[in-house]
Design goal:
The protein has 1001 residues and is of the alpha/beta class. It contains 38 helices and 23 strands. The strands form four sheets. Strands 1-2-3-4-5-6-7-8 form an eight-stranded parallel β-barrel, surrounded by six helices. Strands 18-19-20-17-16-21-22 form a seven-stranded mixed sheet, with helices on both faces. Strands 13-12-11-14-15 form a five-stranded parallel sheet, with helices on both faces. Strand 6, helix 17 and strand 7 form a beta-alpha-beta unit. It is globular and about 95 Å long.
């Protein structure tokens, strides 16, 4: 593998998610071509649209099929899910169940086709008929149904698999590079070019990365060997995904990425140079943009590539930073005195980007959220690229006729300095007409190569692209949409709107508006934000630690009891405002809190950021809930002549006992809820994390909670027991082990006086059930996060992974491979994925458990020696019954199950008596419904990881041995801290019912 010196080129930097309206104003100002050019755009676009609308494959095409089953229909969605998973399911029973499920979800039987095409009608008919077979439905086509019923499920299964393969074949040029090259040769000439793409998900393991590297290298050799005598840019090329070349291609692993991934790309680039091919780095997620540019800059700096003009990269116009990226690429091209190729796309991950920005609580979206803004930016970037020729060679990738027509005007007659690009299987009619009208325009086809199994994720993106209402391909296929609508210029659309953002899509900060502000996150993929955070943490870690005062437990309880009345009498609005201020302070002091959590609790940076956010969210959530609950009395219905009203009030002095694993969020959340309800509180942080607890209490005091209402007591379990035993206790809120919860319960029950509430949240033996329809890469990501993140020290962490037999070995191998890539070490280093266990006790207990295990399938390695660093482990068990206790560390237990034995598996999980979190990975809806109906588990997560419950979105807490409820961060939590009072006033007592008599009608 090549070695590489990291270059000194300036780093790319640009605002990550700037405000839309300002960008729109600038883009609209610069948009617009001379009038004659606009007329030419109309003419060209019309002709292209006409060609698309009138060219019909005699038997119909896949595009038509996809339009028929558009994604806004249940049938279309069912078809997409089938396409995504069917070909990877290994066993028949699951295949049949899956097909039945999807055919039931869509109303294929009554689907009336609009298409004239035989292929589309035949497919619709087949889907309708097969769904009848499955449902045995009584429909008008009974005769056909009777016939196909006799045919039976095996034929349906074969037919469906065949149908998915047909879809796959449409979008993939060949299953191997040789087959793809053979097929491409039929179409290659000076204006028809190819860029080959090796299909696959991103690498999760070192083995995956090595396999992808070999596939790319072999493909380059094969493409090079078969290339003709043409010169760049007319020569063929390859497209490379950096995420395929390295399993931890993430911003926090920048050093490793530059050290290990960049040389791999350099190696491929040298090979491509050897054949004078075009090598393009595909554009991926927005948070990887800076990292990708770092890698590219490092590779380009290598002198072995000098003299080669084939290196390129894709730029996404939906990203607000697109223009800045082009400027940066131009800078690189100047610095290296070389031509670079730039493929301008709109971007393939729009839906994912929007979701991520919301989840991460970013200030804004890194992508435009109006389709017209993306189109507008695309044209602005096109102009920029054209202006930078010949240093940059522009490659315009689009299937939008208006975009093509506009680009033709922008680019003018400089035919040698740009090309169009299209995806194999899409845009055939458009580009056929373009070739007729503009034979000089070069077109490169992006040609995916890979087996059917590897094509699924790609296929789904294409289905989304073809089926989404917002896409041009879908619009042009809908004959009811007039051509004029398709010719509307993006600038005109934007100008006609009040804002350059759709009003239905809130900014991440407003996700919970108007009730409350969402907490602010940090985008680690934006170096400036990450650096600012790291600087804050570094500064705070040097500042002196303020010790926690040692209050006496009994004295604190007595003081809290005295402080109750005044706080309870404080208006709810005042209490809520104090919590809102506390949330703001928590966010403002994130550096200090993170520094403390890292040093005292051994937490990694991403865990710390999430925890700061959760603590702030909890304060704001309880404030918002509390305003409604503890505000004006609620009037109750009743007879005339009296008023009845219900008020909620505090109970007295509460004891809040929090664990060390969420020393800020759980601690603050317990206190905030109790305070909001009008209670005074004595709060005891875990003995391992008193400094964080003390800091949280200081913040609450500073925010306006009187010292008489909130008291801090530090100490171990004995101090907790003293608090619980005090006569003044009006309630206890506790998070920790089931044993301690039981002992608190006994202590409270043994006391004379009022019977007070206990809210306990305890542990769980949390399971995840994965069937054969699940996507292994997604399962791997979710298992690794759920089982190993936070060193497995979350109540919600995955302990028992249940894998369907047929997929167990491959899945375990992938999870182990991904776990091997997790750095176990000092949590203050940003690339650390797993920090230490909390203390020696924990370390000894868990290592002893591992030592007793009969079948350790995987044992990772820790970079840190000494301390309580425990690398991830995977232990295989013969039955779920073998796991009898919660192992609070990075240890994943795995069992296999047979599809037919799912009910017994669920019984076995339920028998354990816990019920905190459960994960399910499956594409079969009926299967998911069955599990959800059967299991009483508190939080069930489907097709995602099972940690990181979000306040107000996933209220958290379980039943059985896992806790008493109500759920923290949920709508019923505050009520448990309060007591109710009803006041009835006989308003007719003094002299009669005046208000009744006063009514006229
Ligand atoms: C040759 C080729 C290579 C490609 N390589 C890449 C690549 O490396 N990386 C990559 O990400 N994609 C890549 N793509 C996919 C590409 O992003 C999509 O094909 C493209 O976005 C579709 O654009 P269009 O002009 O054909 O269609 P249009 O229908 O005009 O545009 C659809 C696009 O608009 C954007 N959009 C949709 N809704 C909204 C909204 N509400 N707000 C803002 N924007 C919205 C999205 O980007 C969507 O894909 C490639 C495509 C081609 C043809």
């Amino acid at each position: 593998m090549a070695s590489l010196n990291v270059p000194t080129t300036t780093e790319f930097s640009a605002p990550y998610a700037p405000e839309d309206d300002a960008l729109a104003a600038a883009l609209v100002r610069e948009a617009g071509l001379p009038e004659a050019a606009e007329r030419a755009v109309d003419r060209t676009a019309r002709r292209l649209i006409e060609a698309i609308r009138t060219t019909r494959h005699p038997f119909g095409s896949i595009d038509e099929l996809l339009q028929e089953f558009s994604l806004s229909t249940r049938e279309g969605l069912a078809l997409m899910v089938l396409a995504e998973a069917l070909l990877r399911v290994p066993d028949r029973a699951t295949t049949d169940e899956f097909i039945e499920d999807k055919l039931r979800e869509g109303d294929f039987v009554h689907h009336v086709t609009k298409s004239q095409a035989l292929f589309v009608n035949a497919s619709a008919w087949a889907l309708g008929v097969t769904s009848q077979v499955v449902q045995g439905g009584e429909t008008p086509q009974e005769v056909v149904a009777a016939l196909t019923k006799r045919v039976g499920m095996p034929i349906v299964r074969a037919a469906m698999r065949r149908a998915m393969r047909v879809m796959g074949d449409h979008f993939v040029l060949g299953e191997t590079i040789d087959a793809a090259l053979a097929r491409s040769r039929e179409h290659t000439n000076t204006t028809q070019r190819y860029s080959f793409d090796m299909l696959g998900e991103g690498a999760r393991t070192a083995a995956d990365a090595a396999r992808y590297f070999d596939a790319y290298a072999a493909a380059i050799d094969a493409i090079g060997a078969s290339a003709g005598g043409e010169r760049l840019p007319a020569r063929p090329g390859i497209s490379v995904k950096l995420s395929a070349l390295y399993p931890r291609y993430e911003a926090t692993c920048r050093e490793r990425v530059l050290k290990e991934l960049a040389p791999r790309l350099l190696d491929l680039a040298r090979r491509a140079k050897g054949f004078d091919l075009n090598l393009t780095v595909d554009a991926e997620e927005a948070d990887r943009l800076e990292l990708s540019l770092d890698v590219i800059a490092a590779v380009l700096a290598d002198s072995s590539l000098s003299g080669w003009d084939g290196f390129g990269l894709a730029v996404q116009a939906y990203q607000k930073r697109a223009a800045a990226v082009i400027d940066y690429v131009d800078e690189l091209a100047r610095a290296r005195r070389r031509r670079l190729m730039v493929r301008l796309v709109k971007g393939a991950y729009w839906d994912t980007e929007v979701k991520r920005a919301q989840e991460r609580g970013l200030d804004g979206y890194p992508v435009f959220t109006l389709k017209a803004m993306t189109d507008l930016n695309y044209l602005a970037c096109a102009r920029k690229l054209v202006a930078l020729k010949p240093r940059l060679f522009a490659q315009f990738a689009t299937h939008n006729a208006l975009t093509v027509a506009s680009v033709l005007e922008v680019a003018g007659a400089a035919w040698g300095d740009f090309e169009f690009q299209r995806l194999h299987g899409m845009g055939d009619a458009l580009y056929a007409r373009l070739a007729e009208d503009f034979p000089q325009a070069a077109v490169r086809t992006y040609a995916p190569v890979g087996s059917h199994r590897d094509l699924l994720a790609y296929l789904v993106r294409r289905l989304l692209e073809n089926g989404a209402n917002s896409s041009f391909v879908a619009a042009v296929g809908d004959a009811t949409r007039p051509v004029e609508e398709l010719l509307m210029r993006p600038a005109a659309i934007v100008r006609g709107l009040p804002h350059a953002r759709p009003d239905w899509l809130p900014l991440p900060a407003d996700l919970y508006a108007p009730a409350r502000k969402n907490s602010r996150g940090v985008e680690f993929g934006h170096r400036a934000s990450l650096d600012a955070l790291l600087a804050e943490v570094a500064r705070e870690s040097r500042s002196p630690v303020v010790p926690a005062p040692a209050n006496d437990a009994d004295a604190a309880m007595a003081a809290a009891a005295r402080g109750f009345a005044a706080w309870n009498a404080t208006p709810a609005e005042t209490r809520a405002a104090a919590l809102d201020r506390a949330a703001d302070l928590i966010e403002a002091r994130r550096g200090r809190l993170i520094a403390l959590m890292q040093s005292e609790a051994g937490k990694t940076l991403d865990d710390c950021v999430s925890e700061v956010r959760e603590a702030a969210d909890l304060c704001r959530y309880y404030a918002a809930e509390g305003r409604a609950l503890f505000g004006p009395p609620q009037a109750l219905p009743g007879p005339t002549g009296e008023t009845n009203s219900l008020v909620m009030r505090g109970r007295g002095a509460w004891v809040a006992i929090a664990p060390w694993n969420f020393p800020l969020a759980i601690f603050t959340g317990q206190i905030a809820a109790a305070l909001m309800a009008g209670n005074s509180v004595v709060a005891k942080p875990a003995e391992q994390t008193p400094l964080i607890g003390a800091e949280a209490v200081r913040i609450l005091h500073e925010a306006g909670v009187p010292a008489t209402a909130l008291h801090l007591v530090t100490g171990d379990g004995r101090t907790g027991a003293r608090l619980v035993a005090h006569d003044a206790v009006a309630g206890v809120v506790f998070t920790g082990s089931t044993e301690v919860a039981r002992s608190i319960n006994r202590a409270l029950a043994a006391k004379e006086g009022p019977i007070v509430p206990l809210i306990a949240e305890t542990g769980g033996i949390n399971a995840m059930i994965v069937d054969a329809t699940a996507l292994p890469e997604q399962v791997t990501d979710d298992v690794v996060a759920s089982a190993f993140r936070s060193a497995g020290q979350r109540c919600s962490s995955l302990r028992l992974l249940c894998l369907q037999d047929e997929i167990a070995d491959t899945t375990i191998a992938m999870i182990a491979g991904a776990a091997r890539e997790m750095k176990v070490g000092d949590p203050r280093e940003i690339d650390t994925a797993i920090g230490p266990l909390i203390d020696a006790d924990s370390f000894e207990r868990i290592t002893a458990h591992i030592a007793r295990a009969k079948r350790v399938r995987f044992a990772g390695t820790a970079e840190m020696r000494g301390g309580f660093y425990l690398p991830p482990h995977i232990i295989e068990l013969a039955s779920p019954d073998e796991l009898t206790e919660e192992i609070f560390g990075p240890v994943l237990h795995v069992v296999r199950y047979k599809a037919a034995e799912l009910p017994q598996l669920l019984d076995a999980i339920d028998r354990k008596g816990f019920g905190l979190t459960l994960g399910v990975h499956s594409r079969i809806s009926s299967h998911i419904e069955r599990i959800v109906a059967r299991m009483p588990t508190g939080n069930i997560y489907v097709n995602r990881n099972m940690i990181g419950a979000v306040v107000g979105t996933q209220p958290f807490g379980g039943g059985g041995l896992s806790g008493t409820g109500p759920k923290a961060g949920g709508p019923n939590y505050l009520r448990r801290f309060a007591t109710e009072q009803v006041v009835t006033i006989n308003t007719a007592a003094a002299g009669g019912n005046a208000s009744l008599l006063a009514r006229e009608r």
